[in-house]
Structure formats: structure tokens, C-alpha cells
Amino acid sequence: MKPVDEYFINQKEPYQSIMLYVRSLILNTLPEVIERYSYKIPFYNIDKKPMVYINILKGRDYVDVAFVQGVLLEKQFPILKNDNKRKQVRSIQLKALEDLDQENFVELLHEASSLLSKSKKAWFV
């Protein structure tokens, strides 16, 4: 079994269901994305550059769907929050599957992918 699969299997509910749903949306929306297991969490890369990752931050009660270049997307997608005072990363916090607007999330994925494809590197701050 791949480490990324083990990561999802070892999550408690409702986090496991939320993460698996987000994962399927990412993989089905962006067939060119590569799923990798880095820093003990799942990352989704385009052209070897990290675009988004899924995590549960210690002491939090939600799934953190974090966009690496989120600071450039937060005006267009107000659902993205600057949690944890991160310089560049912005994320969506999901406590339940119902918290995710699938149509808006798919649009966000396409925009993030397009933005990352035009960038020389993912981390610029």
C-alpha cells in the first residue's frame, strides 16, 4: 500500500471521508496532477510544483485544504482563509462534507492549476 493511501486510511471520521472526497475531486478535476506523499501529508503537484495539500493541523477540528499560492487567489475566492498566519498559503477549513461548495472548489482548482503553470516556482515568499 502506498504511504498516501495509508495516511487516509489512518484518519478518524469525519476527517477520513472529507479527505477522500477532496482527494477524488482533485484527481478527477485535474488529471495532470500528481499525488505525492511529502512531509507526512498528501500533496498534489503540477509540473513537479506543489499546488495543494490536505492536512489536519494539531489542535484543530477540521481538514485543512491548503493552496500553496493561495495568497494570489484569496480575492477571487473569499472561502480561502489565512489560518495560522501563513505568508503565502491560504486554505479552506472543512468540518463536514457539506461545508464544501463543489462547484466553487472545482473552479478554484482550475484557477490554481492555471496560476501554478504560469509560475516559475510554487513558493515565492
TrEMBL record:
InterPro entries the UniProt entry points to: YdhG-like
Pfam families: DUF1801
Residues annotated as domain YdhG-like: 16-112
The protein's name in its UniProt record: DUF1801 domain-containing protein
The organism of origin for this protein: Jejuia spongiicola
Organism phylogeny: Bacteria, Pseudomonadati, Bacteroidota, Flavobacteriia, Flavobacteriales
